[in-house]
Design goal:
This protein has 417 residues and is α+β, with helices and mostly antiparallel strands. The protein folds into 2 domains: 98 residues, Rieske [2Fe-2S] iron-sulphur domain (Rieske Iron-sulfur Protein), CATH 2.102.10; 243 residues, Alpha-Beta Complex (Naphthalene 1,2-dioxygenase Alpha Subunit, Chain A, domain 1). It starts with 14 loop residues before the first strand and ends in a 10-residue tail after the last helix.
């Protein structure tokens, strides 16, 4: 294994200095050089589909509002009145004909134009409402996903998504939100995002899955996609209910009924896609869509935002197909929330692991964290290609691009061949 002192090791993401998880100065740089510069997932198009619909969010400390106009066009603005800076609308979503500030009743239309100022004549004859319109923010869509960026010089969204775009596209058409959940946890935001690029940990951290579907994590693959994105794959295989309940009994000393064995004949890999810097996308398992078709029509989306070096906010979106019936949606919501919500079985495991990592990362004993699993040339691969599915190509690509953003404000370069 190469050492962190070897030329190019830090630039290529093989190692990272642990101060990136614990430093207040680094968090400030991340805010200004990463979150203010990159495309950020906002919502689904189904949440703002009618004229007057809006969705508000915060990119760290920047309030943003996305509005669908009467011309059916999506526009995004800083959610701040151009008079005294008050947030125009503090509700997460809804529908309005105009947006009126609570403080002095300055009023803006759906295009962001200032159309109403009480006692306007007092400002004099040179007062120009056109110069006080809401400040726009770039907004774009990728199929059913809505993204915004605060960076007027950022590449186009499709260029930014790069090599992950075709993999993401097959999952994000004909979907809509069926549930949301947000929570905070005691750990750095990158630890949570790393977790969805890491298929090395599930067999040990998520023992329930390991007991139920032995060795599933090693049947799969791990890829880094330029610039800074990734994909994990695995094949679940047969479900051993008896082994699962034996494990539950062993860990809890509570007697459980004997479980069934469920035969899974579908060899289609399940996937997790990660988009730089903080977006994780996990479609559900394949299911019968009718008409002899199998597909994935539900899943969840997560974003992680820093609240300082030692605390993060996690935002969860659970989605389903636009043509699912209420019973199917409810089942999907209960299933996804039950293992990945703030209270979920999987999230509880990950939260404990991340909290322990955060404590240990403050230790003076070790300076660097290695991401050195997988030494074959290239961007990764699968077990079928002779690559260990639990390698770290995904994480190296992430930190290769992370370092470029953090070190300078120039455009991010492509990986060396």
């Amino acid at each position: 294994m190469i050492s962190p002192q070897e030329k190019g090791a830090l630039e290529a993401g093989w190692y990272v200095d642990r101060k990136i998880y614990t430093s207040d100065e680094i968090v400030q740089k991340e805010k200004e050089r990463i979150f203010y510069k990159t495309w950020q997932f906002a919502c689904l198009t189904s949440e703002i589909k009618n004229p007057g619909d809006y969705f508000s969010l915060k990119i760290i400390d920047q309030p943003i509002i996305i509005i669908r106009g009467n011309d059916n066009k999506l526009r995004a603005f800083y959610n701040a009145c151009t008079h005294r800076g008050a947030v125009l609308n503090n509700r997460p979503c809804g529908n309005e004909k105009v947006f009126q500030c609570i403080y002095h009743a300055w009023t803006f239309n759906l295009k962001g134009d200032l159309i109403g100022v009480p006692y306007e004549k007092a400002y004099g004859p040179d007062f120009d409402k056109k110069k006080l319109a809401l400040v726009p923010v770039r907004v774009d869509t990728f199929h059913d996903l809505v993204f915004i960026t605060l960076n007027p010089n950022a590449p186009s969204l499709i260029e930014y998504l790069g090599e992950v775009a075709p993999h993401l596209a097959k999952y994000v058409q004909g979907i809509e939100v069926i549930g949301r959940n947000s929570w905070t946890y005691e750990g750095n935001w990158k630890l949570w995002h790393e977790n969805f690029r890491d298929n090395y940990h599930p067999a040990f951290t998520h023992r329930g899955f390991q007991d139920s579907i032995p060795h599933y994590a090693q049947r799969g693959g791990n890829w880094g996609f330029e610039p800074g994105h990734s994909m994990l794959q695995w094949i679940y295989g047969n479900h051993d209910g008896e082994s699962f309940f034996k494990g539950m009994q062993r860990y809890s000393n509570i007697e459980f009924p004997k479980g069934d064995k469920i035969i899974c004949e579908d060899p289609t890999p399940s996937e997790i896609l990660a988009v730089f810097p903080n977006l994780d996308f996990q479609p559900g398992q394949q299911r019968d869509l009718g008409g002899g078709k199998m597909g994935t029509r539900d899943g969840f989306i997560q974003t992680a935002y820093p609240l300082g070096p030692n605390k993060a906010r996690i935002d969860l979106v659970v989605y389903s197909s636009t043509d699912d019936d209420p019973e199917t949606r409810q089942a999907a919501l209960e299933n996804k929330a039950g293992y990945i919500g703030s209270w979920g079985k999987t999230s509880a495991d990950d939260t404990e692991a991340m909290a322990r990592c955060q404590i240990g990362l403050h230790s003076l004993g070790t300076q660097f964290t290695p991401f050195a699993r997988g030494i074959a040339p290239g961007k990764g691969g699968s077990t079928e290609e002779g690559i260990d599915g639990r390698d770290e190509y995904s994480l190296r690509e992430y930190y290769r691009v992370y370092k470029q953003y953090l070190d300078r404000e120039e455009p991010v370069a492509a990986a060396a061949e």
